[in-house]
Amino acid sequence: MKHSNQISIKRRDHVFVLTGAGISAESGLATFRGTDGLWEGEHVEDVASPQGWKRDPERVWRFYSQRRKAALAVAPNPAHLALASLEQTLGDRFFLCTQNVDNLHERAGSRNLVHMHGELFQSCCESCDNLPFTDTQLYETRASHRHCPCGARLRPNIVWFGEVPFHMERILDELLRCTVMLVVGTSGAVQPAASFVHWARDRGHSSLRSYYVGPEHPSNASAFTQLFEGPAGVLLPQLFAVAPADSH
User: Which of 80, 105, 117, 248 is catalytic?
Assistant: First the structure.
């Protein structure tokens, strides 16, 4: 197949974008994986699992408070802005699913998106069905922790290891209708997101065009029509060739 230096988006295309930690790393946020098995100095099972929360909620909240501080200290990069601009052009033919919990996409201007792993600036009840709420506070000591009206503790609205990702029904619906899939800054190793490109092709459009953008060679590289390897902030702003609305 002849490769192009741009992603062509036709008048009737529906674009599904999946972003991962790599796009946030270009803004200066730490990623999950580290060669020492630690995540910002913590073992993942201690701060990102139901078991860790049960053992030491103060440690968990201190960790996520630090992550809130870090997210507030950085800004969207050109990759975030390029995706927001593409959404403005395509309207409801654009959908963004992010594995990231930061709000950099929203701050760049993205609106038609879901956070499959939760949102850093939200809290929820550990017990009842009250809706999550926006929360920018820092909880670095046990005395600062808050409780739900039901009496249970509030926890970060984050999908921890062993929990079911959010918005899966909506994500599947969008995968079934997309004709172009763009995966940005993910390793291709974390499920179920690593299978999205396969689901879109097997259950949706057999002629799906799928593209990967990021600095590392993904584990699921063979699933893509074309790879664009390099920093997303450099590649994305010049990557899209969008057909005018009245073209055929």
Answer: 117
